[in-house]
Amino acid sequence: MEKQKLRQNLLKLRLSLSKVQVIKKSNQITRLVLKNFFCSKLTKVFLYVPVQNEVNTWPLLKFFWQKGVQVFLPRCDPKQKGKMQFYQVRSKDQLSPGKFGILEPDPDKCPVFTLPAPQLIFLPGLGFDLKKYRLGYGGGYYDRLLVNPNFVQATLIGLSFSLQLVEKVPVEPWDKPVHFVVTESRVY
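^ thats the sequence. predicted structure below, dont judge the formating
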């Protein structure tokens, strides 16, 4: 199936979920993430703010904040297409609507990311396949991030509802699979 058509179909499927379904399935994903990937040595994570019925990451954000884990969220560069930068966010009031209307870190309130790299990078997606390749929205934001040599040691975790899993997503030479995909029913 053509990439754009697959994106449209997967987005339509995800948007068909009710708010109650999104919350319930997201809570199951949160439990699996914390059971399998949280440890006392975790100090730094990259996460995202959910939009359009994506997996609700607010419970993870709150948990990491309570545990003293540094949480970094992306801010799309308004001047450079496909480029984003991560900022440390300590609370929801440090966020404001950004380039796409998504809540993003306010650069006047949040320190920009500096090395060392995060141990975990959580990625959204429209779909994932069983080889753990991700189908994004087509802007290349995460593709550019993941080729950065500073992040080769980070564990990449795709968060997805089961209905977003497909047999195969179209793969480009620069695409990099995630290490794990967490759905409401299991960790792949």
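Residues 19-37 form the longest helix (19 residues).
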